[in-house]
Amino acid sequence: MRGNESFEDIVKKDLDVRTSDGTHERMRRAVLDAHGLSQTNTAAATPTIRRRTLMRSPVVKLGIAAAIIAVVGLGIVEFVGTGGKSGVVWADVAQKVQASRGVIFRTTEHIVPDTYDQGVDFGMHHWSSTQSRLDLYKGGEINRTIWSDCNTKTTTLVDYYHKSYVKMTAEKMPDHFRMADPNGWVQRFLSCKYKELGQKTIAGVLCEGIETTDPAFYGGGNPPETPMARIWVSVETGYPVQFEGERVYDGARHTFVQDQFQWDVEIDESLFEPNIPAGYIDISPTE
Amino acid sequence: MIEDEILKWRFKHGSRTALARIYEKYVHLLLSVAMGLLNDPHEAEDVVQDVFVSFARSANGFGIQGSLKAYLAACVVNRVRDQARRERVRQRHLGRPAAGPAEASEADQSLLYSERCERLSQALAELPYEQREVVVLRIKQEMTLKEVAKLQGVSVSTVHGRYRYGMEKLRALLDGEV
User: Fold this and answer.
1) Does the residue A122 lie in any domain?
2) Same-domain pairing of B4 and B52
3) Which of A42, A70, A75, B56 has the highest Cβ tally under 10 A?
4) From CA B19, how far away is CA B25, in angstroms rounded?
5) Where residue B8 sits, what CATH number does that domain have?
6) Residue from the list A24, A114, A254 with its beta carbon closest to the beta carbon of B62
């Protein structure tokens, strides 16, 4: 045994591998190149943020409605044309979701194997057409809030646990905004191949569902290994009741559910105003 | 901890600088973990590069809400397991035993490590894989037994047993050398 070191300390110290300068630079370049490629691909694959603003124009709405009808007419999308057996007209769902003034819903996410504490039990979203607020809950309390504003391209995160905040302005909106966008979900379903799941009752509501395993649904330059997404819509109201998603990255299975939807609600504008408590530390990046 | 939270945040917003910092911060730790699991510097380098490349591409994918360090280590472990599975399949098809630990050629000094590290890595390779994984993750990665149990999908007591037997055997193998 060396000196006073424990066997564990020695193992920890001896198991030490480093890159040579050349290897370090080569690996670093490969990693950064992969990142650049991913950013390019994703920007091309997910133009959903700008669309939200564009869709306010009646002309654009009309154009998109016409495109949906044309696609359905050509039989490229399978969901309409179910005759009398279906109670949900999916093209109407897209229109209703698009027209919804505001929506509130819950997101729950699980990762298996869960090798670390996620720090979040669930998130509550408030959405208007161009703004969102996400409150992240742990143990019944909000530990972080994220505000995103599509108009100003600004995202603000307040971390109540560390009493700090970050303000970012970025050309691309953050991941949670893009992936959680309920309107984006429906639109992406329209552009993917999927199958009908039939009917089931969720929280006392009779729903009809569809499922896609099309990697394009999640977009990005690094499609998941086994993508799956489902949407369940109320037969009575025509609004989504539950979204379910699952994908595998690097052997870890990510599943998430969006539920407890309240559609077409008027959301108090003040909820979308970032509220930073006095004394919190600004840890915004300077680059 | 705070630095990692900021790095994650910036990375998710497309920051190359944040990615570069994450790489700089964790590449040597992950290489050491991979070497401890694989006892093969070439394979270790490939695994770690694959993990970082995949991570870089995931910027627009799912968010990482927990520990960045634990997440990256779990990626390395999963890739090593995949590699081991592929190797078993290859052996079945080719009907020949797996190659022994690769020896880094003198001409290829892509990774730098001491003779003690090499001997330790060889000793680790003599442990059953599950024990080796627990020992490396517990000691080098500083994961708790509970975290390792989650990663391995077994109980904490099982992991505790694997750690104890693994350390005993490792100590016996290295007796007098450390």
Assistant:
1) yes
2) yes
3) B56
4) 10
5) 1.10.1740.10
6) A254
Closest-CA distance of chain A to residue B129, Å: 17
pLDDT value at A194 more than 80: yes
Contact check, Cβ <8 Å, B61/A175: yes
Per-residue pLDDT averaged across A241-245, rounded? 93
B70 vs A74: which has the higher pLDDT:
B70
* Phi and psi angles of residue A50, each rounded to the nearest 5 degrees, phi first: -60, -35
Comparing A246 with A225, which gets the higher pLDDT? Answer: A246
Clarify whether residues B86 and B157 are in a common domain: no
Say if residue B60 is in the same domain as residue B145: no
From residue A66, alpha-carbon distances to A57, A69, A109, A248 in Å are: 14, 5, 36, 35
Q: Using the beta-carbon criterion (under 8 Å), do A32 and B5 form an inter-chain contact?
A: no
Cβ–Cβ of A287/B114 closer than 8 Å? no
- Tell me, yes or no, if A218 comes closer than 8 A to chain B by beta carbon: yes
Answer yes or no: is A243 within a domain: yes
* B108 in any annotated domain: no
Q: Which candidate, A84, A104, A80, places its Cα nearest to that of A190?
A: A80
Distance to chain B for A205, nearest Cα, Å: 30
Say whether A119 and B170 touch across the interface (CB within 8 A). Answer: no
Residues in chain A: 287
The pLDDT score that the predictor gives to residue A69 is: 34
In a domain, A28, yes or no: no
Q: What is the pLDDT of residues A99-127, one digit of tens each?
A: 898 999 999 988 776 554 557 788 999 99
